């Protein structure tokens, strides 16, 4: 019976260590992705600038309103109301420039224009 108890304890310890190793690996991947996004020169440049929401609104009207609605209420694309509460600044930049969610086209404005657009989106 004593040997069975030691075997059970070893099994529990192995399972716990495996779970801890998986959690650590996931955390490292997430931190690596986060660090990579901030290391992108375009993203760093955009984040270093102060945006103007009025200019951002004009950029939005020209490039985004056709799908997201005149006041970002959503049409073909989703509503962008309170989008800054759901997505980080880095995630918003990536969303705009990547084109990874069809049918949204890839769009990479100049860094100041992107900062202005972010400022507008944060004002919604």
Describe the overall structure:
By secondary structure, the chain is mainly α. It has 2 domains: 1-39; 41-123, Cytochrome c-like domain (Cytochrome Bc1 Complex, Chain D, domain 2), CATH 1.10.760.10. It is built from 7 helices and no strands. The protein has helices spanning 2-39, 41-47, 53-63, 65-68, 83-86, 89-98, 111-123. Helix 3 packs across helix 7. The longest helix has 38 residues, at 2-39. The N and C termini lie far apart (66 Å). The relative contact order is 0.14.
Question: What is the CATH topology of the largest domain?
Answer: Cytochrome Bc1 Complex, Chain D, domain 2
Number of strands: 0
Shape: elongated
Q: What is the residue-averaged pLDDT?
A: 83
**How many domain units?**
2
Taking Cα atoms only, what radius of gyration do you get, to the nearest Å? 22 Å
Look at the structure and give the CATH class of the largest domain.
Mainly Alpha
Structural class: mainly alpha
Q: Fraction of residues in helices?
A: over 70%
């Amino acid at each position: 019976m004593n040997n069975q108890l030691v075997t059970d304890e070893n099994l529990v310890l192995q399972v716990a260590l495996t779970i801890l190793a998986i959690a650590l690996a996931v955390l490292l991947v997430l931190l690596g992705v986060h660090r990579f996004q901030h290391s992108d020169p375009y993203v760093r440049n955009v984040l270093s600038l102060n945006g103007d929401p009025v200019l951002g609104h004009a950029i939005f009207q020209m490039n985004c309103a056709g799908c997201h609605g005149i006041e970002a209420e959503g049409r073909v694309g989703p509503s962008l109301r309170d989008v800054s509460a759901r997505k980080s600044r880095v995630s918003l930049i990536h969303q705009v420039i990547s084109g990874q969610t069809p049918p949204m086209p890839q769009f990479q404005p100049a860094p100041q224009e992107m900062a202005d657009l972010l400022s507008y989106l944060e004002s919604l």
